[in-house]
């Protein structure tokens, strides 16, 4: 009895801490979910911010659309399942990786580096290079050899290595640093250079060394073994983060867990997602946001966005009913401004398109005049207002403006017609009509959903949003 009483108290406490703010299609929505959505969509930097009362309607519409998508079984589509799993798993995978796993990987990287470096350790050299191309004639190599002999003699006579490197070395990157190269290990230098360098002790200078790049003189600056793990610890951790190696660690760990538990990786990811959702409200709602957002996209695309864009008859009808909305304050010119190489083509271009629909002009002109390597015409096609095109302004709108001649196309012309009252049909303003038609379909759909599904808002709880 005591245990049951404690459970009841806990249940009441949970409801008090996070009460139901609305019920949509029989499903309770907690205040925390509404706050998560509202705060995320009205954060700093959001242009069209909403107050809580305005956002309630948007949130309800969102939930109703998700209900419709679930009823239509969009969540059973394999394409949806795959895409949702991909998004969700991106959030879940890192949770398999512990600090101990990262430390283990850091130690592994360090040990592998020590092994690669080997017993000869790291070296830092300075060098002077006089270049000779590997395929260059012998005379070029001979000339470079004479110059390097002179440099070597100067160094043996006491010239400062760094100063001489700055003046004569033809390796620009190191020359600016007095010939200094970074620390390297075996395998990072060409063999001829590496063999000569590793033979030197700090302070020793090589003789003249020939490599595929030319002639070098090498000065050993420092030799060392790799510092202890602790010295490089933070740098290795930074390297792991920069290379996104946590993903690799997670993949490896999930694979090992799958073998040891006889579970599939998908099952492990499902379990981890449920665990994280139970522990972290932000993660729970982020995963739900992915899930519902993908459903919303699919159903909205099918019923509104893509449907409107492809419904030519619907667009035409919508335009006809709302034609006054698209009227222009000033005339437009529906046609083209074009430039041709020969005068005869001025008429030929007009004859080519005069019996064709406007949207067929471009293809007809391309195949007739610009089908081969010789481009006979330059064309700008569209619906022009004053100021859009200098040739149209001059030839059609009779404005005093300068028309810049197109090189190699001396003959200018226009073809089309002036639309004084507004567009002829929806294709003249297709982008605007599509957007408005989509908006109309959206409103009609939402109205239907609000009749189809029941919803209730707890006004008293709504007043406590972000105030508890």
Task: Give a written overview of the molecule.
By secondary structure, the protein is an alpha+beta fold. Among the domains are: 72-117 and 229-310, no CATH class; 122-224, Chitinase A, domain 3 (Roll); 328-421, no CATH class. Helices cover 55% and strands 14% of the residues. The chain has helices spanning 2-17, 31-41, 52-71, 78-92, 99-117, 138-156, 161-168, 172-175, 191-198, 229-242, 245-261, 265-279, 281-310, 312-321, 344-353, 361-369, 390-395, 430-452, 459-462, and strands at residues 20-24, 27-30, 122-131, 205-211, 214-224, 332-340, 377-384, 411-419, 455-457. The strands form 3 sheets. Strands 2-1-9 form a 3-stranded antiparallel sheet. A 3-stranded antiparallel sheet has the order 3-5-4, with helices on both faces. The radius of gyration is 37 Å and the shape is flat. 18% of the residues are buried.
Question: Top keywords for this entry?
Answer:
468 residues; alpha+beta; Chitinase A, domain 3; three-stranded antiparallel β-sheet; disordered N terminus; Peptidyl-prolyl cis-trans isomerase D; PrsA_foldase
Distinct helical segment count: 19
**How much helical structure, as a percent, in the residues?**
55-70%
SSE arrangement, N to C: HEEHHHHEHHHHEEHHHHHEHHEHEHEH
Shape, per Cα inertia axes: flat
Give the biggest beta sheet.
3 strands, antiparallel
The rounded Rg comes to 37 Å
Q: DSSP strand (E) fraction?
A: 5-15%
Give the strand line-up of the largest sheet.
2-1-9
Low-pLDDT segments, ≥5 res: 1-15
Number of strands: 9
Structural class: alpha+beta
Mean pLDDT: 93
Q: Separation of termini?
A: 32 Å
Keywords: Isomerase, Rotamase
Domain PpiC: 120-222
GO molecular function: peptidyl-prolyl cis-trans isomerase activity
Pfam family, one: Rotamase
